[in-house]
Each structure stands twice: as C-alpha cells, then as structure tokens.
Specification:
This protein is α+β, with helices and mostly antiparallel strands. The chain is 28% helix and 29% strand. It contains 4 helices and 7 strands, in the order αββαβββββαα. The longest helix has 16 residues, at 26-41. The mean pLDDT is 97. Bound molecules: zinc ion.
C-alpha cells in the first residue's frame, strides 16, 4: 500500500464527472487499498478516487471516525436514491485543507452501491441507510465523483469570500 498525492482545488480532475466502474480488477483493488491508506494518513473521514487523480466512481469511508462502524468501507458506483430532512454542520475537505464552513445538507440518505470487500475484492450490492455525519460523508464523497466540491453548495458570495481568504492564508496551494 502507498500514500497517494491528494489533489487540491484548482486541479481539473476534481471537476470531472467520474466514470462508472464496470470491472473490478487488481488495479481497482490496489487503488482502493491505497486510498484507504491515504485517507488515514490525512486523518480524513472519506476520500473519492478523483481526489487522488483517478476519475472513477469509487469512494472510501472511515466508518470508525464517522461513528458508523468499525472498519473502512469501499463503495463502487454509489448513488443517492433517497434523501430527507435538513441539517447544518461544519464541513471540510482534504482537497481544500484548512477551510471549514457550515453547510446545509439532508439529514438522512439512502445510497445504493456495490461494496468492495478487501483484501479479496468480492462485491456485494448494498443499500445504505445513513443519518447525520454518516449521511453527510456519503453526500460529500458522492458529490466529489460528480465533480462537485462542498464549497460549490454555498451561496456565491460566501464561497468567493471564503476561498479568497483561504488562498491568502495558504499561498502554498496557489
Ligand atoms: Zn472532500
């Protein structure tokens, strides 16, 4: 396993509509394992494949830190099939390090996906029912594979002000 380079806002791969995965081969399994290591190395709750430069519909979630389980979870082609309610919480992203802001999202979601079980690489079709932080993490990562960053969901003025301030404070990412 290896820690991969996390792409920062401004990198075009973060804006890509990621491709559906039709075959799970050794390359996908390796990618999932490396993404898990990369996520833990960065103390993240989740990571999407395009955040490490691969525009495919694969996300990993740190269920332990989310408070929704013990293990890491790997989802292939996840899709939000239902959402309900509203919740405002602070959110951040490994691709915009150090920027945190309150964001409204649904409180409850249902997500369909193929769960990839490691290290074997077996697949299981699942329907996840999630609330609170777990729902937020799923929505955040699924946004990523659709080319959407969490700041895109803020209103225009707030986004511009926050990003301008973030760029001033983080010249290393310019
Ligand atoms: Zn993110």
């Amino acid at each position: 396993m290896s820690v991969l380079n996390i792409r920062i806002i401004g990198d075009p791969v973060l804006r890509k509509m990621s491709e559906e995965i039709t075959t799970v081969d050794s390359e996908i399994i390796q990618l999932a394992q490396d993404m898990i290591e990369t996520m833990h190395n960065a103390n993240g709750l989740g990571l999407a494949a395009n955040q490490v430069g691969v525009a495919k519909r694969l996300v990993v979630l740190n269920l332990k830190d989310i408070g929704a389980g013990k293990k890491d979870m790997v989802l292939i082609n996840p899709e939000v099939v239902y959402s309900e309610g509203s919740d405002v919480q602070e959110e951040g992203c490994l691709s915009i390090p150090g920027l945190y802001t309150k964001l409204e999202r649904p409180y409850y979601v249902e997500v369909e996906a193929q769960e990839l079980k490691l290290p074997k690489g077996t697949l299981k079709k699942i329907r996840i029912k999630a609330e609170d932080l777990y729902a937020r993490a799923l929505l955040h990562e699924i946004d990523h594979i659709n080319g959407i960053l969490f700041v895109d969901r803020l209103d225009d003025i707030k986004r511009r002000v926050l990003l301008a301030k973030w760029k001033r404070e983080h010249p290393e990412y310019a």
